[in-house]
Automatic annotation (TrEMBL):
Residues 31-71 form the Transcription initiation factor IIA gamma subunit C-terminal domain. Keywords: Nucleus, Transcription, Transcription regulation. Its main location: nucleus. Residues 1-29 form the Transcription initiation factor IIA gamma subunit N-terminal domain. It comes from Dentiscutata erythropus. PANTHER family: TRANSCRIPTION INITIATION FACTOR IIA SUBUNIT 2. One of its GO terms (cellular component) is transcription factor TFIIA complex. This is Transcription initiation factor IIA subunit 2. It is found in: Nucleus. The keyword Membrane does not apply.
Length: 82
């Protein structure tokens, strides 16, 4: 997840969706990447021992699975890259 996560966080910072301090917090709390794969335009990450902060409590779990895919709507054209 290392490079993919840092690239994604960098893009979020560049587009002003998050600030650099939040990106650093995400990196520090990311946990250990156990497995990742990219198939048919879908990313799947399995992270061991992540910590989550929910309102006023911290939650620790053994494992979490994150599935991410393109958010374009059906029929919507792919964005052009410069």
């Amino acid at each position: 997840i290392g490079m993919a996560l840092t690239d994604s966080l960098d893009e979020l910072i560049q587009t002003s969706h998050i600030d650099p301090q939040l990106a650093m917090k995400v990196l520090l709390q990311a946990g250990h990447l156990h497995t990742y794969r990219f198939c048919d335009e879908v990313w799947t990450f399995i992270i061991k021992n992540p910590n989550f902060k929910l309102e006023n409590e911290q939650v620790h779990v053994d494992k979490i699975k994150i599935v991410a895919c393109n958010a374009k709507k059906p029929g919507e054209a792919e964005p052009t890259k410069n």
